[in-house]
Design brief:
7-stranded mixed beta sheet, binds NADP nicotinamide-adenine-dinucleotide phosphate, elongated, alpha/beta, single chain
């Protein structure tokens, strides 16, 4: 691809798709690059109920992202599916090189999001996809009528435990403290769901099984005591869904951009330390990570790119 775009947007989550909408609508030649599915983290979300104006029952992250993508396309943003391997962000033309092509633009908006934090327990890699999942929307149906555990105590853990309760026989939330971090409204729902029980002050220590996970060893962080949660003989397998936060997808830009614990540092106009390079959404250092704040970041970044290009 030899064209020099006005702006390349890296990532098609809420931040990237909103940036694409604003950039396209602002008349910029825009390319949105995404390596996987649209929506980023919200594509893993079974229920989005706090995006303003979103009141229809049954809105999933996937359906919301699909409408965002359609809106960005309506304003002319080009799309490309590729995994970017290297970036040159100095100079007036920025270059992103992927597995399938090289892409150039006068400005770049990095909206690469974040990925689920691994548990860090023994045998994690062995059982990922064989009982251990990071996506309840994707994998809950495999555990219909079985027992599942959820690791974490934030909004994601609580919301996805509620989703899992529609399928599983019992859901045990394993949380490292004795109270949830999740928003009160979600906590109210979790505490009134009879299928959900809690293992407080606990972390997952080790996973065991044969082809599928059938034993989770949990450690009490206060007493050090180990407890085994085992699948019954009739069930034969257990599920573990991990929602213990996210890590930024920023490794590509290490050494190029200023960062804070791996998150890209920007000013309030989404500008990084390099001219013409912006960051938006969960990859950016900030306090509140919600769909609505990601979308806001994307809009600000695209408007700032327009100003930058006019200069
Ligand atoms: P989060 O808010 O960062 O919560 C992570 C949870 O995992 C916390 O309960 C934390 O425990 C626990 N944890 C972290 N590291 C751990 C470790 N090494 N071992 C065991 N437990 C660990 O992550 P999130 O729930 O995925 O949410 C991420 C962001 O998205 C948040 O800003 C959240 O508000 C937002 N979000 C919003 C919605 C919504 O509004 N509907 C839905 C999902 C996510 P501690 O509590 O002890 O720190």
């Amino acid at each position: 691809m030899h064209e020099i775009y006005d702006v390349i947007i890296l990532g098609a989550g809420p931040a990237g798709l909103t940036a694409g909408l604003y950039a396209g609508r602002g008349g910029l030649r825009t390319l949105i690059l995404e390596k996987g599915q649209d929506g980023g983290q919200i594509s893993l979300s079974s229920d989005v109920e706090n995006y303003p104006g979103q009141t229809a029952a049954g809105e999933t992250g996937v359906s919301l992202a699909a409408r965002m993508a359609e809106q960005a396309a309506r304003f002319g943003a080009d799309r490309c599916s590729d995994t970017i391997q290297s970036a040159e962000l100095d100079g007036s033309v920025k270059t992103l090189a992927g597995l399938h092509g090289t892409y150039r633009a006068k400005a770049v908006i990095i909206a690469a999001g974040a990925h689920p934090r691994p548990i860090g327990c023994e045998n994690e890699a062995q059982f990922t996809g064989r009982g251990l999942s990071f996506c309840a929307t994707c994998d809950a149906p495999f555990f219909r009528g079985l027992e599942v555990c959820v690791a974490g105590g934030g909004d994601s853990a609580a919301e996805e435990a509620l989703h899992l309760a529609k399928f599983a026989r019992r859901v045990t939330i394993i949380h490292r403290r004795d109270r949830l971090r999740a928003a009160q409204s979600i906590q109210d729902k979790v505490f009134s769901e009879p299928k959900i029980t809690f293992l407080w002050d606990s972390v997952v220590q080790r996973l065991d099984g044969g082809d599928a996970l059938n034993k989770i060893t949990v450690k009490n962080v206060k007493t050090g005591a180990l407890t085994a949660i085992e699948a019954s003989q009739a069930d034969g397998m257990l599920g573990l869904f991990a929602f213990i936060g996210y890590l930024p997808n920023s490794r590509l830009f290490e050494g190029m951009l200023d960062m804070e614990n791996g998150y890209i540092r920007t000013d309030e106009n989404m500008r990084t330390n390099l001219p013409g390079v912006y960051a938006a959404g969960d990859v950016r250092a900030k306090n509140v990570r919600q769909v609505v704040t990601a979308a806001a970041d994307g809009a600000i970044a695209a408007i700032q790119v327009s100003h930058f290009l006019q200069q």
